[in-house]
């Protein structure tokens, strides 16, 4: 089972004629609300990859629809608590030329406590995986508890924050980042990735696939991406990571888990949208046969 400590956001999309200027009042031409947040996206991806996933997180009373949707998608929502803060949300303005501006309010995502995580992890064993990202409170406490329980601890260092990564590095079994985050991390700590105290380091390279560094053996391999024509790359990284972690949790070797993650990531970039369109295992397997 994957225990995912992660954000849940309402993604509030507004189509606008142009990005709003200081002091301006502007009417949107269209509005759409979707389920988002890196945490929620990854939980959906793990569930779609047919692994068990317990989501640890928080919403406000205005976020019950998001919990219901996660449940519909096969995520165990018993450890998503309801708090007084509003549900985390992103106000996403999309101008007619495609440019966007995004305002995020973490809200309930920052109300997750150490005790809340401890409650959820009483169900975990050393055969389980603890996954988290950088959009939630109590990360260090969560990773410390998971590590003490002997769980596999996986961190997706996104959105990047040097202090947050440094605090959890010694607790990690695997670290997943995109190319930009990997560069930010090397710059921030002044050492190359191969010198990090983490056994498995996975760097996604978009259309160039991904790189896997095994710091135990010194192996450094690059895996080419599946060639596709992308239409919307949002959510590719979350989908890749969810599939990768789901596969590792089921005991798959890293090469196979990476291959599955890349298949899912490639399908994801051919679709518009985020959590609601993450491919399921059957889509991924069918694409493989074709
Ligand atoms: P992020 O969304 O976090 O920036 P990436 O863009 O690196 O992450 O994408 C994650 C994974 O999704 C890649 O490692 C790759 O497997 C897949 N992917 C992303 N973009 C493409 C693409 N254009 N073609 C094929 N696969 C892609």
TrEMBL record:
<comment type="subunit">
    <text>Homodimer.</text>
</comment>
<dbReference type="GO" id="GO:0019303">
    <property type="term" value="P:D-ribose catabolic process"/>
</dbReference>
<feature type="binding site">
    <location>
        <begin position="237"/>
        <end position="238"/>
    </location>
    <ligand>
        <name>ATP</name>
    </ligand>
</feature>
<keyword id="KW-0418">Kinase</keyword>
<feature type="binding site">
    <location>
        <position position="232"/>
    </location>
    <ligand>
        <name>K(+)</name>
    </ligand>
</feature>
<feature type="binding site">
    <location>
        <begin position="204"/>
        <end position="209"/>
    </location>
    <ligand>
        <name>ATP</name>
    </ligand>
</feature>
<feature type="binding site">
    <location>
        <position position="271"/>
    </location>
    <ligand>
        <name>K(+)</name>
    </ligand>
</feature>
<dbReference type="GO" id="GO:0005737">
    <property type="term" value="C:cytoplasm"/>
</dbReference>
<dbReference type="GO" id="GO:0005524">
    <property type="term" value="F:ATP binding"/>
</dbReference>
<keyword id="KW-0808">Transferase</keyword>
<feature type="binding site">
    <location>
        <begin position="9"/>
        <end position="11"/>
    </location>
    <ligand>
        <name>substrate</name>
    </ligand>
</feature>
<feature type="domain" description="Carbohydrate kinase PfkB">
    <location>
        <begin position="5"/>
        <end position="279"/>
    </location>
</feature>
<dbReference type="InterPro" id="IPR011611">
    <property type="entry name" value="PfkB_dom"/>
</dbReference>
<feature type="binding site">
    <location>
        <position position="238"/>
    </location>
    <ligand>
        <name>substrate</name>
    </ligand>
</feature>
<keyword id="KW-0460">Magnesium</keyword>
<keyword id="KW-0547">Nucleotide-binding</keyword>
<protein>
    <recommendedName>
        <fullName>Ribokinase</fullName>
        <ecNumber>2.7.1.15</ecNumber>
    </recommendedName>
</protein>
<dbReference type="InterPro" id="IPR011877">
    <property type="entry name" value="Ribokinase"/>
</dbReference>
<feature type="active site" description="Proton acceptor">
    <location>
        <position position="238"/>
    </location>
</feature>
<dbReference type="GO" id="GO:0004747">
    <property type="term" value="F:ribokinase activity"/>
</dbReference>
<comment type="pathway">
    <text>Carbohydrate metabolism; D-ribose degradation; D-ribose 5-phosphate from beta-D-ribopyranose: step 2/2.</text>
</comment>
<keyword id="KW-0119">Carbohydrate metabolism</keyword>
<feature type="binding site">
    <location>
        <position position="234"/>
    </location>
    <ligand>
        <name>K(+)</name>
    </ligand>
</feature>
<comment type="function">
    <text>Catalyzes the phosphorylation of ribose at O-5 in a reaction requiring ATP and magnesium. The resulting D-ribose-5-phosphate can then be used either for sythesis of nucleotides, histidine, and tryptophan, or as a component of the pentose phosphate pathway.</text>
</comment>
<keyword id="KW-0630">Potassium</keyword>
<feature type="binding site">
    <location>
        <position position="273"/>
    </location>
    <ligand>
        <name>K(+)</name>
    </ligand>
</feature>
<keyword id="KW-0963">Cytoplasm</keyword>
<feature type="binding site">
    <location>
        <position position="135"/>
    </location>
    <ligand>
        <name>substrate</name>
    </ligand>
</feature>
<dbReference type="InterPro" id="IPR029056">
    <property type="entry name" value="Ribokinase-like"/>
</dbReference>
<keyword id="KW-0479">Metal-binding</keyword>
<dbReference type="InterPro" id="IPR002139">
    <property type="entry name" value="Ribo/fructo_kinase"/>
</dbReference>
<keyword id="KW-0067">ATP-binding</keyword>
<dbReference type="Pfam" id="PF00294">
    <property type="entry name" value="PfkB"/>
</dbReference>
<dbReference type="GO" id="GO:0046872">
    <property type="term" value="F:metal ion binding"/>
</dbReference>
<feature type="binding site">
    <location>
        <begin position="37"/>
        <end position="41"/>
    </location>
    <ligand>
        <name>substrate</name>
    </ligand>
</feature>
<feature type="binding site">
    <location>
        <position position="178"/>
    </location>
    <ligand>
        <name>ATP</name>
    </ligand>
</feature>
<feature type="binding site">
    <location>
        <position position="268"/>
    </location>
    <ligand>
        <name>K(+)</name>
    </ligand>
</feature>
<comment type="similarity">
    <text>Belongs to the carbohydrate kinase PfkB family. Ribokinase subfamily.</text>
</comment>
